[in-house]
């Protein structure tokens, strides 16, 4: 279970000291971001897996040189994109600078900062959910973080509440979550 | 629904997720278009929440790839473990020593000016020249003066300085000194001042060591005295001792000047001391932070900025002993 109170700065420091568990936390925190970025760049799952491994090795090599760990997510997105394009360039003839082409292609929403913020928000959101009591915690988890995206009727059965009360309950729970996240600087 | 009425949170959540019917959605949009801050803030929160929740749909890398990445730290360690351990436990003291030596070298090449005096109070035109700037600038009340600083007073200026060992000095008008040295050895201060013009009143606390005053005509040393020194054009120097004693060293010889005595000496000459006390105007003994007026800069400094010490004469209102 991830400890959200551990900052990237702390984890990087412990990792540099050889603490494997810190590396595992960092990896779990950012592996989806890296892999997702590679897939977004058009890599096949196998290619994305290769890129993911390369990025992890670069990450480890550069760990001690990353000065601003607040931008770690954005740095990983950029590094992943560079790796994708380096591989793509090796197999294709590309005129011009790969990164320029990449930046031209990337919209505002997919900027390294935007993707990284999205991933960080997800972590913060999960941390906020943990502070909620049930049934809010389970309800919001099922609504927003259950990969299978269960229907309202399934959720109502699971929580043992009438379907028509799900809406008002969700609204109350979201309001509570908003307050919690507001205190976390959301 | 009134377009000005706030939209329930539940409706906004459905709006953000695209669950509303066209009619309700239009009403919500109309309300938001009015610029409702509260509802706009709720919509932004819900949109951000939904964007963050999308991350759950981002696939994780396959488990075997995750394990490989996890093991990458071990492989990474295998390349540099020795170096990391050596660095942590053996090179650290060496690094500290190297840094210390580097600091010493830097300091010896470019020593930082030490604190030599503070400007307790002043009146009229008073200027200081720091070694760091090399230009004369108006003095500032309470200004800390590093070693090497020169201070000069204008025709109507006077300034009182406090030295780190507790000694005081007061420059009369048209005087100039330079704080040549102020170092502490075995708990006692060694002070060297070069006086090039005008009259200065010195209070050196009893028990002081290495208090040395230099002029172009000679050197005055004391371990505790109240005395005045006046340097005239051409370097002729007069000393009047009010309390304690001072020793005068010149090219022509040395002499001890005691309480009530005065002495005059010129460059290359020997001191001429009169046994009888000379009548001198009573200087006011300064006291650090005694609340004397610290007139910041008064633009009445008459000598031009390129005036030489000699040109600052005629000399002060301190009594000049008769030879």
Written account of the structure:
- The complex is a heterodimer of chains A (186) and B (323).
- With 186 residues, chain A is mainly alpha-helical.
- Chain A contains nine helices and no strands.
- Chain A has helices at 8-16, 20-40, 45-62, 72-91, 98-105, 112-130, 136-145, 152-159, 166-183.
- The two termini of chain A are 22 Å apart.
- The model of chain A has no long low-confidence stretch (mean pLDDT 83).
- Chain B is an alpha+beta fold and 323 residues long.
- Chain B contains five helices and 16 strands.
- Chain B has a five-stranded mixed β-barrel with strand order 9-10-11-13-12.
- In chain B, helix 1 (9-16) packs across helix 3.
- Chain B is elongated, with a radius of gyration of 38 Å.
- Chain B starts with 8 loop residues before the first helix and ends in a 49-residue tail after the last strand.
- Mean pLDDT of chain B is 76; it is low at 78-89 and 280-323.
- Portion of residues in beta strands of chain A equals under 5%
Biggest chain-to-chain interface with counts: A-B, 42 and 35 residues
Would you tell me the overall average pLDDT of chain A? 83
Average pLDDT, all residues of chain B: 76
* Separation of the first and last Cα atoms of chain B: 109 Å
Q: How much of the polypeptide of chain B forms β-strand, as a percent range? A: 25-35%
Provide the helix percentage of chain A.
Answer: over 70%
SSE succession of chain A: HHHHHHHHH
Calculate Rg of chain B over CA atoms: 38 Å
What general form of chain B does the structure show?
A: elongated
Strands of the widest sheet of chain B, in order across it, are 9-10-11-13-12
Q: What Rg of chain A is obtained from the alpha carbons, in whole angstroms? A: 20 Å
In total, the number of strands of chain A is: 0
Structural class of chain A: mainly alpha
Q: How many E strands of chain B?
A: 16
- Taken from the alpha-carbon principal axes, the silhouette of chain A is globular
Report the sheet with the most strands of chain B, covering strand number, pairing sense and barrel closure.
5 strands, mixed, barrel
Oligomer: heterodimer
Series of H and E elements of chain B:
HHHHHEEEEEEEEEEEEEEEE
Instruction: List the total number of helices of chain A.
Output: 9
Point out poorly predicted stretches of chain A.
Answer: none
């Amino acid at each position: 279970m991830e400890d959200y109170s551990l900052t990237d700065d702390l984890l990087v420091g412990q990792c540099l000291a050889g603490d494997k568990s810190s590396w595992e936390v960092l990896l779990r925190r950012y592996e989806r971001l890296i892999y997702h970025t590679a897939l977004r760049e058009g890599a096949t799952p196998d290619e994305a897996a290769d890129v993911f491994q390369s990025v992890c090795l670069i990450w480890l090599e550069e760990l001690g040189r990353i000065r601003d760990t607040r931008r770690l997510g954005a740095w990983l997105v950029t590094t992943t994109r560079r790796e994708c394009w380096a591989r793509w360039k090796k197999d294709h003839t590309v005129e011009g600078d790969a990164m320029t082409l990449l930046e031209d292609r990337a919209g505002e929403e997919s900027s390294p900062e935007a993707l990284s913020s999205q991933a960080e928000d997800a972590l913060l959101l999960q941390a906020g959910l943990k502070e909620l009591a049930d049934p809010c915690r389970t309800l919001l988890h099922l609504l927003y973080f259950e990969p299978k995206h269960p229907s309202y009727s399934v959720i109502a059965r699971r929580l043992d509440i009438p379907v028509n009360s799900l809406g008002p309950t969700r609204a109350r729970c979201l309001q509570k979550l908003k307050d919690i996240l507001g205190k976390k600087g959301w | 629904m009134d377009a000005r009425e706030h939209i329930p949170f539940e409706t906004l959540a459905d709006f953000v997720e695209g669950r509303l019917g066209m009619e309700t959605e239009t009403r919500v949009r109309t309300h938001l278009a009015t610029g409702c801050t509260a509802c706009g803030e709720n919509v932004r929160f819900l949109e951000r929440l939904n964007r963050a929740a999308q991350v759950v749909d981002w696939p994780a890398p396959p488990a075997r790839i995750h394990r490989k990445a996890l093991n990458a730290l071990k492989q990474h360690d295998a390349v540099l473990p020795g170096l990391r351990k050596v660095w942590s436990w053996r090179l650290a003291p060496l690094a500290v020593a190297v840094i210390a030596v580097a600091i010493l070298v830097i300091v010896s090449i470019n020593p930082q000016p030490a604190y030599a005096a503070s400007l307790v109070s002043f009146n009229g035109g008073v200027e200081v020249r720091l070694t760091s700037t090399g230009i004369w600038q108006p003095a500032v009340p309470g200004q800390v003066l590093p070693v090497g600083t020169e201070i000069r007073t204008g025709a109507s200026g006077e300034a009182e300085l406090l030295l780190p060992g507790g000694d005081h000095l007061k420059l009369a008008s048209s005087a100039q000194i330079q704080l040549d040295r102020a170092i502490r050895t075995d708990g006692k201060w060694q002070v060297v001042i070069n006086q090039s013009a005008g009259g200065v009143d010195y209070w050196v606390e009893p028990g002081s060591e290495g208090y040395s005053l230099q002029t172009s005509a000679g050197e005055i040393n004391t371990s505790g005295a109240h005395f005045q020194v006046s340097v005239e054009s051409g370097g002729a120097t007069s000393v009047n001792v009010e309390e304690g004693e001072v020793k005068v060293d010149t090219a022509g010889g040395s002499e001890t000047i005691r309480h009530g005595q005065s002495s005059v000496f010129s460059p290359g000459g020997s001191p001429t001391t009169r046994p009888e006390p000379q009548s001198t105007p009573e200087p006011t003994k300064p006291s650090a932070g005694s609340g004397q007026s610290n007139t910041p800069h008064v633009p009445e400094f008459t000598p031009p900025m390129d005036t030489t010490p000699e040109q600052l004469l005629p000399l002060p209102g301190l009594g000049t002993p008769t030879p």
